[in-house]
Here is the input.
Amino acid sequence: MSLKRNASWNLAGTAIPMVAGLALIPFTLNRLGSEAFGVLTLVWGLIGYFSVFDLGVGRALTVQLSQLGVSGRTADAGPLLRSGMLLTLGAGVLGMALIWLLAPGLATQWLKIGPALQDDARLAFLIAAVGVLPTTLASGLRGALEGLDRFAASNLSRIVLGVWMFALPAWSVYFHGPSLETIALYLVLGRCLVVLGMALQLRGHLFARGAGLAKRHFQALWNYGLWVTVTGIVGPLMVYGDRFFVSAAVGADQLPLYAIPQDILLRLLLIPMALTGALLPRLAGMGVADTAQAYRQTYRRVGLAMLVICVLSAALAYPALLLWISEAFARSALPVVLVLCVGVWVNSMASVPYTLLHAKGNPRLTALFHLAELVLYVLALWLLSERFGLVGAAMAWLARVLLDWVLLHLAVRRLYGI
Here is the structure.
């Protein structure tokens, strides 16, 4: 298991879709207009956020399959994987039903979408609800691939899915016009194709003879995944949920000024996630001394690398947005960008203790932290976005990730003495 190789694949899996976004977002924004593009970012958020309905099985599979490999019990891999996918299938159906019920209210009442767009937005949200099912299945399959040390296959699927997220809307508006319903349909079909490809990669385990189901695997996945699910619900809500508050506070027409910089800057977090994601299965099987050494090295590398990247991002933000979109957009979005750059660095540091706690079987602790943070964050987000608009929302997010970093750091120090 090569940490450098796996981290490189993780980085490629996040960097290539980011480049696609940089290239294609201006075209899609110009063709759709600000308000319709704002609704598209909500569709992206719905489909992406509800990967939480994998019940934490993806991460549980990564940890438990890697432990099976270390202990030599590879015969259990098939039953474990089949049990995990059955859990994600059932949970995905529930998630799909929930979004289907929420879609009419989102489109017509809660998000200040203009009357001319409400019907198209409603249909787009309904189609996005169907996309929850392949999203949850993809999350579980990706976790299994990484637990089996098949980071190349996992990230090839991630690259395809990430590029399609930006390419398919551009394709749709070019050939079919500014129809949110058609864009959502393309996005869901793209996810279904990716799930099929990932399932074929794992067909030896999924469809092996005699690889039935085992109650102990359901129990183990449930016990670990339940707390990961709590974090999976709360965590993305505290990352992408602010868009819904911003839309409610200032209107969907202002949302691109917040959502576009946020989308780009949050993708910088994929750099530390590439390293910590590759480190997760290794930490799960390490002893105390090796764990401490790997943890400290990763902390230093992430901190220094992301400090340089975030400073450069802040310095280059205005000219980049000026060339990429427009002078008016760059001027209005710059204050949001500067606050988010600080938050991205803080959140990158928090990813290291977060990964260690999960690798050592402590997802419950991170979930409890996030539940406590959510209450404070929602209050701060509502008050600050109402008073200071887009900058207030960014300030609330910065305060939340700072609190998260402190709590995670203190937990690792207390539990493991690192």
The radius of gyration is 21 Å. Residues 82 and 206 are 6 Å apart (CA to CA).
